Amino acid sequence: MRGKLGLxxxxxxxxxxxxxxxxxxxxxxxxQALKVWSLDPVQEQVAKVRKVASSSAMALPRAAWGGAVGVxxxxxxxxxxxxxxxxxxxxxxxxxxxxxxxxxxxxxxAAGPR
Length: 114
Prior knowledge:
Number of strands: 0
Protein name: Protoporphyrinogen oxidase
Structural class: mainly alpha
Radius of gyration: 25 Å
Region (Disordered): 94-114
């Protein structure tokens, strides 16, 4: 209950202060934000993020799909239920390792050179 009360008070205070600042202050803040956005260092980072996002956007889904296909193939093979279970577990472990590897590569690309 205290959290909800604090949220309501915070929202109310923000509304009142925002209404008092008015449109002119909003335009000042917006102008400053656009200036910062246009700075070269900011745009360099934006370009890096876009590059990583476009190059690795499909790496995780591809790894996950490949893993799902591997598990399905392992389960559909001929053999006893125990053998199918073992094959499915092995395929699941391999798929998890592939997804982890793809994730690690994405994180490394996103972090960039240090």
